[in-house]
Every structure is written in structure tokens, then in C-alpha cells.
Design goal:
The complex is a heterodimer of chains A (about 120) and B (about 110). By secondary structure, chain A is mostly beta strands. Chain A is about 0% helix and about 50% strand. Chain A has strands at about 5, 10, 20-25, 35-40, 50-55, 60, 70-75, 80-85, 95-100, 110-115, 120-125. Chain A starts with a strand and ends with a strand. Classes of the chains: A mainly beta (about 120), B mainly beta (about 110).
Chain lengths: ~120, ~110
């Protein structure tokens, strides 16, 4: 059974950089059949797609975050990471990592089928 | 990239059917047959219940069904059960290989 687990600081100061990792177990991140993605949810709010990364190097970012966002993969540790610079209070949210089918060979094409439990990140001084 | 439009709330009695709409544009819902729906219970991660507009992942009851017409997708929950009370989010593939979620609908089982 595939499992994803987010890790990182629960609090970040305004203007600093938010860094999160997602460890994957029960499967490999090395696959062209999947994207590995990030989604966030502000307190009391809805879901917001942040971006996706694939082991073949493909990356897609939410346009409004593209100048501050960087996604990467560490295949040796079977994990992927998010880096968001110059954070403000508007970046306070629960951050989820998830797997998304990329090809028609994947079980659920272009949908997020496995999710981490989420990690609350608060931007505050 | 604007969020897809969902009604903030919906409700129905046990055994009834309820339909939740998800309105987009010709750059997302109307352009691609890649709409998915997620169920989120409080304090839990979202769960995929519909993908590619109408398909159900293994283990999702057939009480959940999806459809699309033009720029609007819909989720229908038939035979409402107490455990269906949750937040529901639609999501669509969009231009430039991006994704857009709806604002979410809180489903109440009366």
C-alpha cells in the first residue's frame, strides 16, 4: 500500500522560505506514469493546486506561485520536496502531498489517488 | 486561474439523491474530460471518488456518479447515507497543464 508523509516546520516567519518534504513508501517515485504533487488548504478554505513534478524532470507550477515556487525530487531517498520563498500570511495552510496519474497506464489518469495526511504550516513572526 | 464554481452547501435526507454542480470555462471543464471529485471528512485527507468525469476508483460505492455537460460537471450521490456528510471538491485539468479546484461544497445529510 502506497503511503505518503509530509514533513517540515510547522511555523515559518514572514519573508522567509517554506521547505517541505514528502516521503513515499510502498512504491517508487521513479515512474513516468505518475506526477508527484502538492495541494494546500487554508484554514477553513478550499483546496488549491500548487504544482506537480515527475521523475523525468517535467514540472508544472500554479502560475500565481511560479516566481516563488520550486519543486524537486530526491530519488535516492524516494521523496520529493517543495520550496516556497518570501512567504506571507496568505501562505498559511495545510499542505498535502499526493500522487497523480500522468499516463493512461496509471490507475487514475490525471487524478490524485494517494494523499499524505497533511501538515499545517503557519506563517507568523 | 480562477477556482471552479460550486455551491457552498447541499443537503438531502437519507436515501435521497443530491447533485452538486461544478462550473468552469472553456479552458478547463469544457475543454477536457478530466474532471475529478474528492470527498473530504473533517481532519482527514481528501479521497478520490470520481476521475475522468465518470469513472470510480476501486472501492468507491456506485452510489457516487459523475457527469459533464459543456462547461459544467456534476456529482450525484444516490441513496444518501450518514457517512456521506462531508465536503466535496471538483477538480479539472486546465490549459498549460495546470489544475484548478472548485471552492468546495458542504454536503449535509439531514
Amino acid at each position: 500500500q502506497l503511503q505518503l508523509q509530509e514533513s517540515g516546520p510547522g511555523q515559518v516567519k514572514p519573508s522567509e522560505t517554506l521547505s517541505l518534504s514528502c516521503a513515499v513508501s510502498g512504491g517508487s517515485v521513479i515512474s513516468e506514469d505518475y506526477y508527484w504533487g502538492w495541494i494546500r488548504q487554508p484554514p477553513g478554505g478550499g483546496l488549491e493546486w500548487i504544482g506537480n513534478v515527475c521523475s523525468n524532470g517535467n514540472k508544472f507550477y500554479r502560475p500565481s506561485l511560479s516566481t516563488r515556487l520550486s519543486l524537486s525530487m530526491d530519488t535516492s531517498r524516494n521523496q520529493f520536496s517543495l520550496r516556497l520563498t518570501s512567504v506571507t500570511a496568505a501562505d498559511t495552510a495545510v499542505y498535502f502531498c499526493a500522487r497523480r496519474g500522468r499516463t493512461i497506464s496509471s490507475p487514475t489518469f490525471l487524478a490524485f489517488d494517494y494523499w499524505g495526511q497533511g501538515i499545517l504550516v503557519t506563517v507568523s513572526s | 486561474q480562477s477556482a471552479l464554481t460550486q455551491p457552498p452547501s447541499a443537503s438531502g435526507s437519507p436515501g435521497q439523491s443530491v447533485t452538486i454542480s461544478c462550473s468552469g470555462t472553456s479552458s478547463d471543464v469544457g475543454a477536457y474530460d478530466y474532471v475529478s471529485w474528492y470527498q473530504e471528512h473533517p481532519g482527514q485527507a481528501p479521497k478520490l471518488i470520481i476521475y475522468e468525469v465518470t469513472k470510480r476508483p476501486s472501492g468507491v460505492p456506485d452510489r457516487f456518479s459523475g457527469s459533464k455537460s459543456g462547461n459544467t460537471a456534476s456529482l450525484t450521490v444516490s441513496g444518501l447515507q450518514a457517512e456521506d456528510e462531508a465536503d466535496y471538491y471538483c477538480c479539472s485539468f486546465a490549459d498549460r497543464n495546470t489544475l484548478v479546484f472548485g471552492g468546495g461544497t458542504k454536503l449535509t445529510v439531514l
